[in-house]
Amino acid sequence: MARKNARVTLQDIAEATGYTINTVSRALKNKEDISRETCLKIQQVAREMGYVRNYIASSLRSGCTKTLAMIVGSILNPFYATLCDLIQQEAVRLGYSLFILCSNDDPQAETRLVEMALSRQADGVLITPCSFESPALSLLRSSGIPFVLLSRYLEGEKDDCVICDDERGGYLAGKHLIEHGHRRLAMFAFHHVVYSSRKRFDGFQRACLEAGIPEGDIHYAEFEQEEDVQRRLETWLEDGVTGLFAFCDVEAWNIMNQMDLWGLSAAHPTEIVGFDNMLRYISFMKPICSIDPQLQEEARIAVDLIRRRIHEPSLPPQQIMLPVSLVCRHPE
User: Fold this and answer.
1) Taking 50 as the threshold, does the pLDDT of residue 3 lie above it?
2) Which H or E element spans position 23?
3) Please, what are the domains in the chain?
4) For 224-236, what is each residue's pLDDT tens digit?
5) Of 80, 99, 102, 285, which has fewest CB within 10 angstroms of its CB?
6) Strand 97-102 relative to strand 67-72: parallel, antiparallel, unpaired?
């Protein structure tokens, strides 16, 4: 039995089983030089005694904490919450713990979070930077800690990153709306997202121009205040805009709800395409067509990439772009 108010040690298990501490340690790690029967016997006793591996002691010996830090904007955003959940699953599968830090898109806070990850001896950092001018990226590069950019790409730099084909996603969204008869279109976002905002609009605009739609009928806006949203939407709708492309699904749903509240939906029927395919992971009452960026695959590749970077620091930088697809859902 485990001693009260004391952590069970390898010495305790050795005394209970009659094996040496070294044999116990190797059996708990399923080392091949210990028979399977012995491993199972020792592991069973360890479970009964309430043994929990001391990763701090292990990290002092190995120099690795088996811990990853993930820095995102805010897990109140379903996109980040979903990505964090998928990353967590992959990290655990590969034997890592994950701690999640939220910057609220503040560059100074982001830098403090990198400092926190470094001070806690994280083996690597996964980050969706709020700005490429953020001091956090300079700190990561100078620290030598392995890191991977998620859903962000800084052209010209040589950082590991996993992104989706944002430009292709915008193109598919625009093409879908055009094929459904819309000739006056607009893309909107509630704030600027580095790299992705520009790429998605580039693709959206390309689809429109290929279809012969004049530039004057292709609109774009980044909203900052609630009154700006309503005013711009009313102007677009009065000008005949019927096809809308939202930067992400959450913003698409927000606009759909606001249009209902403002009484715009009935007077101005519109079609909205989102981005992220959140309905694959969460439920929402209003189905929408959306661009699927393969978040599950992004999580798998990102964790595998940072694991390889931890063990092989000299590997050349990897910029991995995932293909996207349109998932069409039409409301009843």
Assistant:
1) no
2) helix 21-28
3) 10-53 (no CATH), 63-165+295-323 (3.40.50.2300), 166-292 (3.40.50.2300)
4) 777 788 899 999 9
5) 285
6) parallel
